[in-house]
Amino acid sequence: MVIKIIFNIILLFSFFILASSRAWFRYQCVGFDLTFTCNGKKYSNVNSVLYDYMTPFWNTIGSFRANNDSSLYFTGVMDTFVTFNPYLYLYHQCNENDPMCQTEFYIHIPKTYVYNGKRPEKFLKKDIELGNKYLGQNRQCIRNGKLVKNVPYPKKTKSKKQ
Predict the structure, then answer these.
(1) Measured CA angle at 80 (ends 48, 104), to 5 deg
(2) What is the mean pLDDT of residues 72-96?
(3) Which H/E stretch holds residue 108?
(4) Which residue, among 77, 94, 87, 88, has the nearest Cα to 25 in the 3D structure?
(5) How far apart are CA 122 and CA 139, in angstroms?
(6) Number of CB atoms found within 10 A of residue 73's CB
(7) Tell me: the pLDDT tens digits for 125-150?
(8) Are strands 86-92 and 114-116 parallel, antiparallel or unpaired?
(9) What family is this (predicted)?
């Protein structure tokens, strides 16, 4: 049993020594150019966070805010050991009446837009209508000083005709 533990420690230590030599690491890059609209009108109040999903961890790459012209342009490089698997989370208040709430959804950036090297060959270009419903979309609000996720949308009431 002791020999097995020592062997595992040596194996783990040698992995870190080899990894620190950077021989297995490579540059990978991604680029995207997004434009946002809310009910057909340009919308710039959009925050985003780029994550690298590496099983079982989420690594934050960076956070960005849309420009005044409602666009988000990004190109970035990662020096990594495993393949970059980017997800872009978007946060906005399009069609939101409560100032303490926002809508969150994500876009998975396909591996066809992740390149080896320091410059992307092709950019993911999308026009995103924030008024639409997206897969994985949820509403989050600040209630009593705490962030609460998956807050249900208020029910629309029908006005009675008199």
Answers:
(1) 15
(2) 87
(3) strand 101-108
(4) 77
(5) 32
(6) 14
(7) 999 999 999 988 999 999 888 888 87
(8) unpaired
(9) Belongs to the nematode transthyretin-like family.
Enter the DSSP assignment of 5: H
Which contacts of 146-155 are long-range, i.e. CB under 8 A and separated by 24 or more positions? 149/104, 151/101, 154/97, 154/98
Name beta bridge partners: 142.
147
In CATH terms, the fold of domain 27-148 is Immunoglobulin-like (2.60.40)
Q: Is a pLDDT exceeding 60 seen at residue 158?
A: no
Q: Which helix (H) or strand (E) holds 144?
A: none
pTM: 0.76
Phi, psi at 156, each rounded to 5°? -80, 130
- Asked which of 17-26, 43-52, 103-112 is least confident by mean pLDDT, the reply is 17-26
**d(Cα 44, Cα 108) in Å, to the nearest integer?**
21
CB 116 within 8 A of CB 26: yes
Tokens describing residue 30? 């991604």
The pLDDT of 88-106, averaged and rounded, is: 93
Residue 73 β-bridge partners = 33
Q: Which residues, at least 6 apart from 5, have a Cβ–Cβ distance to it below 8 Å?
A: none
Least confidently predicted of 26-30, 32-36, 52-56, 116-120: 52-56
Are 93 and 102 in contact, with CB atoms under 8 Å apart?
A: yes
